[in-house]
Amino acid sequence: MFWYLCSIAAVLVVCAMRIVREPRFFFWDDTQLGAFGQWYGLGSRLLAGEIPLLSPGHWQGGNYLAEGQWGIWNPVTWIVAIGTHLIDGATVYTTLVKIAFLVALATGAFLLAREYGASPWWAAVAGFTATMGGQTIFMDAPSWVTGLQNVALFALCWWALKRHVSRGASPFPFFVFAYLLVTFGYVFGVIELAVLLLLFLVASRWEGAWVSARRVLVLGAFSGLLTVFVYLPGLLTSPVTTRSGSQILNDQFLNMDLGDLATSSITTATSSVHGYWGDLVPVPLQYVTWLLPLFVLVLPATARVLRSLVIPAGILVVTLAFVLGPSVLGPIRYPARMMPYAVLCVAIIFAVLASRRRDVHRPSRARVQWAMGLTALAGWLAWAAQPSSWAWVLLATALQIAIIAALFLPWRGRVLVAASPQRVAASILIGSLVVLAPQVARYASSPLGNFNVPSSVSAMQAVGDDIAEGVMAVGDVYSLQAHPESYRESLIANLWYLTGEDAASVYTVLPFTAFAEDLCIDLRGYTCPDALDVLFRDREHPLVDDMALNSVVVIKGNGLETRPDAPRGWTVEDREFTWVLHRDVPVETAGDVARASEGLLVETIDRTDTSVTVSIDSVPPEGGDIVFSRLAWPGYTTNAGSIADPERGYLLTVHVDAADEGETLTIQFRPPGWAVEVASAIAAGLIGIGWSLSWVAGRRRAAQRGSMWEASTAR
């Protein structure tokens, strides 16, 4: 326990350093625009006793099961979501959540290293090291929180899997952690889990361990069925979204090359990773650990030790193959996101090798010099990649070499630290804090955007007080960040969820292609200036009516410099940063009937987020169409008439014939493949319960046999 607490303490120290340097370090970019508002919106529904599947009024961002990353079925996400309603400070709350997942990652790495035979002190080094990779520190922890959640749960899954497969321990922890990992809805962790299960299966078959192979197959079936349950809705929905492509290409966006990895041991080295920032990433995204040159101190190892590390080495090789491979594999993009799994593998391998090396605290001078030379080489390569960063590269390289020398080279006839492996491991933990200090000082935040959104939940809630529900922001919403006070008038992306109102401008990872093209809207709610004209242009059937909007917030500037004229039935309010168009007589929010063909009379009987029931009172001889203020997501069915080609290419439309007059029509949404998905979830549940009960029964039988043997020998 002592060494575990040391590992966690080191993680917390770095987190504190980061927060002192940049108080918003953990509340950045997609956490500001995506995760926090998403958590708040989900928490609102959960507190109302609902599990949301669909929200018509949130338009392309409202298909929650297809989105996947909402974590609709994930109890940990539920807790996080409800927690957003308990504190007014979004920055403070998000920081606590992120730190909790970093601690979970360190815990998983510590347990995993111990399971592979690492000593507690080297497992502590592994736990800390696993949390400090460049992708984790500069991308996942500040912004892409689902990546952080995934790698934390992956480490715990791996630990639970090895315990069950190798030692016959309870499978229940694996079922819990695998369920949480898969239902977070972030595909990279699921890919890694699939690779892990496959490697365990191959290893078991290779060794002729048929019992172990059977265990892997059962756990793999559970994970595979859960994956179908969580990911099939998005896969079957993708044809109508911008994620429908199946091409494989390399646009060099957020993948790495061997040159990047060559400098991954220098804490301040930057690289040539192309991304949102341009051709050269301005932070050490490729950083793995400063301990990489120290592998010369723990190698070679015995064949037995190397065999025990086949699976971590296999995961490392496959992960690096992804990271170095094409940047686009169909819907899977940005392979640099898989770097945290490589860091985890390196941490585990190093801890095990160091534990098995009896002379790790007193290596030969030649080995130490090799480690120092490799560090110097990596520093030179880092300088060559970006010469302008020479001062910070030199500082980090010199610090790392000095610490290696202090740890392992004699000074005035004696080594300063080395007396035991425990002291060396403790010194490495402390040294890690020292070598990371220049990184914290130089690179204060993520290279992704800070949108300067408010931290106060109540302040963001107040934005909706004077805006009727059914909102859409038009214009350059990103320009709001230049004037943080402008967030009193408009919000951005998922922060609209804090108002409790339907908004068409929320974040989505699955933009509905026709809708996005018609309104020229991106995944975070930015629109071209022409979107305002598109909303009101059609005099007979204005899109603003079809979408059941009651408020249109126009962001001033960037093509929208002139006060818009008030259309009939609307009033324009002039504010400092926006104009707000208010409908004089608000209509019901999106989801209901928007309009029907001439001569077709219908009346709404009932409506929910996933269904609408109407009576068909009159139908012209040629029939007609009913247009709903809903996106035509795959998964809609109707009990009368037929689903027709969507109006404008995206509005749900039902065609009825004269024979349908007098009928009651119900349109119903279920995620495409719903029957298969539910069946998969049930099957996964049965496997998890059945295998766990089988394990318990087996343990009881073994205990009974042991008692009978003791009784017989006593006689």
Automatic annotation (TrEMBL):
Name the chain's protein. Answer: Membrane protein YfhO
What are the TM regions of this chain, as residue ranges? 92-113, 120-138, 173-204, 216-237, 283-302, 309-332, 338-356, 368-385, 391-411, 423-441, 674-698
Q: Which organism is it from?
A: Microbacterium ulmi
Keyword Nuclease found? no
Signal sequence, renumbered to the chain: none
Highest taxon of source:
Bacteria
Which keywords are on file for this protein? Membrane, Transmembrane, Transmembrane helix
